[in-house]
Amino acid sequence: MKRSILLGLLAIGLLIAYVSLTSPDGSAGSITNEETVFPENVAQVLQVSCYDCHTTASKNTKAKEKLNFDTWNDLTAVQKIGKLDEICTEITKGSMPTEKYLSYYPDRKLTPDQIKMICKWVDEESGKLMGEKEE
Q1: Averaged pLDDT in 10-residue chunks for the chain of 135 residues
Q2: Is 4 helix (H, G, I), strand (E, B) or coil?
Q3: How far is CA 86 from the centre of its chain?
Q4: SS3 call for 11
Q5: Distance between CA atoms of 54 and 31, rounded to whole angstroms?
């Protein structure tokens, strides 16, 4: 909860900074949208448990509209931070993958270690996007 509030406040701050740094032609000033490279261990879990619904190839329109990993690098830093927070929240609650999906593919349920790993990556990636230094 505390992390969500902090991330929300920081996202608002980034949005304000982005708007103030946007040039009159609509292009971003000094804030860049660097490509996110998913670490191999995170990418493997996402591929197994998330990509069936959250990529362009999915037939699940609602899921891919909510989050589409194929278009991840088209998102702004603020949008990525919001999506990252949602990822950790949803998997921690056990909402993702959905029960319906898991009824067909029970082996794709995330383990507690996988959830912890993804949420750790979420925190690190959010920090990078917010300009925090790695320690």
Answers
A1: 53 43 37 62 95 94 94 94 96 96 96 97 93 57
A2: helix
A3: 7
A4: helix
A5: 27
Q: Burial of 74 by CB count in 10 Å (0-12 exposed, 13-18 middle, 19+ buried)?
A: exposed
Q: At what angle do helices 112-129 and 2-21 cross, to 10 degrees?
A: 30
The model carries a pTM of 0.70
Helix (H, G, I), strand (E, B) or coil at 97: coil
Tokens of residue 88, six digits = 């950790």
Q: No. of H helices and E strands in the chain? A: 6, 0
Q: Are 106 and 24 in contact (CB under 8 A)?
A: no
Q: What string of H, E and C letters represents the secondary structure of 28-90? A: CCCCCCCCCCCCHHHHHHHHHHCCCCCCCCCCCHHHHHHCCHHHHHHCCHHHHHHHHHHHHHH
The confidence score (pLDDT) of residue 26 equals 42
Q: How far apart (Å, rounded) are the C-alpha atoms in residues 22 and 18?
A: 6
HSE toward the beta carbon, residue 115, CA cutoff 13 A = 16
